[in-house]
Amino acid sequence: MLDLSFSQGKSGKWIVADTAFSPDHLGKSEAVMVLGNGYMGLRSANEEPYLGERRNLFINGTFNQADPNEVTELPNAADTTQLDIRIDGERFSLEFGEVEQYSKQLNLNEAELMRSFKWTSPKGKKLQFCFRRFVSLKNLHLIGMQLEITNLGAAVDLSIGSGINAQMTNSGVQHFQEGHQRIAENRFIQLTQTTAQSGIDFVHTAVHSFRLNDEEITAEAERNMERRRVWMVFGIELGPNDRFEMEKLSTVHTSRDKELAAETYSLESLQMKALTELEELEQKGYQLSMEEHRAVWQEQVWDTGDVEIDSEHPEDQLALRSAIYHLAAMAPAHDERMGIGAKALSGEGYKGHSFWDTEIFILPVFIYSKPEAARSLLLYRYHGLPGARKKAD
User: Fold this and answer.
1) Would you list the domain boundaries of the chain?
2) What is the DSSP letter of 299?
3) Does domain 2-269 have CATH number 2.70.98.40?
4) Could you give the CA distance from residue 111 to residue 48 in angstroms, rounded to a whole number?
5) Residue 82: per-residue pLDDT
6) Strands across the sheet with 57-59, in order?
7) pTM
8) What is the per-residue pLDDT for 74?
9) Is 198 helix (H, G, I), strand (E, B) or coil?
10) What is the structure's pLDDT at 264?
11) Closest C-alpha to 134, from 63, 7, 12, 42
């Protein structure tokens, strides 16, 4: 459950925290700690899967109608965040074994998600885990992930399955055609899918890198391609006190991206562009990409929009900053063809559709803190007038 005690002290006024794992309350932290940059919204589901979770990735403006009897909605895009972690052959899950010092935190100041804990397996193996994740405001297409595992006991056989999973649905509704998948240079994963009705191409790419005790390593990989899913399984031996690190950088591009509007569109060109970009991002790595993201977030969000209040209740400051964070994460300031859905990009509610919330609750904030974003939101309404008049006739 969410713990507001973190609001005590200077740094705590930036931290939204969950200090106890509960498989019955996954949705709260998934939505409250959502990551986004206006282009995409990534629900903060845990890396290891659980029954009842909602793994959502929405790309703004990519509506599709799955069936004539269905309402158009933002399709749930392929997932790159799930990891299948196995310790000595057993699937890792916090529902088994013993958990100590659990913490899941969203740092509002840096727009980074972190989860850490110590875990003792049913077989008695003890490990320390730390997961980090961000959705970049520097590069709107980038999702960064980092995993660190420290072995606190006897040697373990570690296995990590990771890739791109397009077997996703909107509460059972499938919006995509089968698509194409490949692994380039035995490292760069790419999966392409197209919405069935609106014909929008999605190009997902991902790459992994590894370190053991601060030394770069090449992990043995087993490749697995299924329908709508491309997967790699990495095996590593961890001795006592060994520290293993994995970075995963993934990107998503679509044929509706604004920068493609003035070009002669080609799916093959977009696929190659995505791979080239990912190669460059891999050279930067998680930390440098995170620092670039942090700098842009500070400049575009907190330098212009932070509000400090004097209250005897420290959680009031945290609540205010949380609201500002979500406004920044949901606003598509990069593209006036997109609006803000009633549930923004944090879940399937309202199917991504915009209502009157924008003008009443959201627009005034941007008028005073980020006028260019306010203009973009108003232009979105203006561009929709012909369609609105047609429907009104």
Assistant:
1) 2-269, 309-392
2) I
3) yes
4) 21
5) 98
6) 35-36, 40-42, 57-59
7) 0.96
8) 97
9) coil
10) 84
11) 42
